[in-house]
Design brief:
By secondary structure, the protein is α/β, with parallel strands linked by helices. About 40% of the residues lie in helices and about 20% in strands. It is built from eleven helices and nine strands. Strands 1, 2, 3, 4, 5, 6, 7, 8 and 9 form a nine-stranded mixed beta sheet that branches. Helix 5 runs antiparallel to helix 7, helix 7 runs parallel beside helix 8 and helix 8 runs antiparallel to helix 9.
Length: about 300
């Protein structure tokens, strides 16, 4: 084992104007059967009563720490939490989400026996504002291809694969030893961008086939804003294409993902993008046999600008 003491888990809860959800989220940490943890609440410049609620929660529990900063977005808040973390493992938990009581206990059964940096992740389900109401359990798969998790994540994220951030439990060394952070310039999909960096390190990865994360879906959930999600995902993919510019295979995979994502979000693209996609679809459906491949290649390059 890594050591004889129970591993300390650092739970990082970024909070921006979600004080009304925060007590439930923190309560799901307090309910853990594995009790050796710290919980870091990062108030990311909230204008509601987040500070008062967080301090009340921390006042009765020494394992809860409160930090505040000017608004830097979800990525900035998570990065602040990682920088302040004292644990051997990192658990991200958004202020409106929850985890089930045995999550730490079960995931640590595997991770605490591994000497090298590793990752465990679980299944999840979606709930309404009332977390006792299960909205659905059938969504894209949560299990990565064990043979090549990085490629699977690059190609199939969001279309065939969906893993919310709080499903994971990370060895902190993956962040601290490799300077891995969330990109605070991305409006969304910062988690996918970060996981791409983490899984490029090829950590040992363990899946727990059990629903141990609860993802709350509400009218204000960011993923409901499809146009914004499209722009963020395309920006994240294009960033990764640049990072893999010297890796021919991964660049090919990511360019394919770029096309898949544009198609998946085509109804939420700006008008000019939809115009080009209509042309693209027509060409590939009816004229690909007569148009030279070089011409189609040039069209692909043009489309990627949108």
């Amino acid at each position: 084992m890594k050591n004889e003491q129970p591993p300390l888990i650092s739970v990082i809860i970024p909070c921006y104007n979600q004080a009304h959800y925060l007590p439930e989220s923190v309560q799901s940490v307090l309910a853990q059967t594995h009790a050796d943890w710290e919980c870091i609440i990062v108030n990311d410049g909230s204008t509601d009563n987040t500070k008062e609620v967080a301090l009340a929660l921390a006042g009765g529990e020494t394992r809860i720490r409160y930090i505040e900063q000017s608004n830097r977005g979800l990525s900035g808040a998570r990065n602040k939490g990682v920088a302040e973390a004292k644990g051997q493992y990192i658990q991200f938990l958004d202020a409106d989400d929850l985890i089930t009581p045995r999550k730490f206990e079960i995931q640590l059964q595997v991770l605490s026996e591994i000497n090298e940096p590793s990752v465990s992740y679980s299944d999840y389900y979606c709930s309404a504002d009332d977390v006792t109401v299960v909205l659905h359990k059938h969504f894209p798969r949560t299990r990565l291809d064990s043979a090549n998790p990085l490629r699977d994540m690059a190609l199939n994220w969001e279309t065939e694969l969906s893993i919310p951030v709080h499903c994971f439990l990370f060895d902190v060394r993956l962040f601290q030893h490799h300077n891995v952070q969330f990109d605070d310039t991305l409006p969304n999909h910062e988690d996918w961008d970060c996981w791409m960096r983490l899984f490029a390190l090829r950590p040992k990865t363990f899946y727990v086939d059990c629903e141990m994360a609860i993802y709350r879906v509400s009218d204000n959930t960011m993923c409901r804003n499809d146009r914004r999600m499209r722009a963020g995902f395309l920006a994240a993919i294009q960033k990764q294409i640049k990072l893999y510019s010297h890796d021919r295979e991964m660049k090919k995979v990511l360019n394919k993902k770029l096309s898949i994502t544009k198609w998946a979000y085509k109804g939420h693209a700006p008008p000019l993008s939809r115009f080009w996609w209509n042309i693209y679809t027509a060409l590939h459906s009816y004229a690909h046999r007569v148009i030279p491949k070089s011409a189609l290649s040039r069209l692909n390059i043009l489309l990627r600008r949108y």
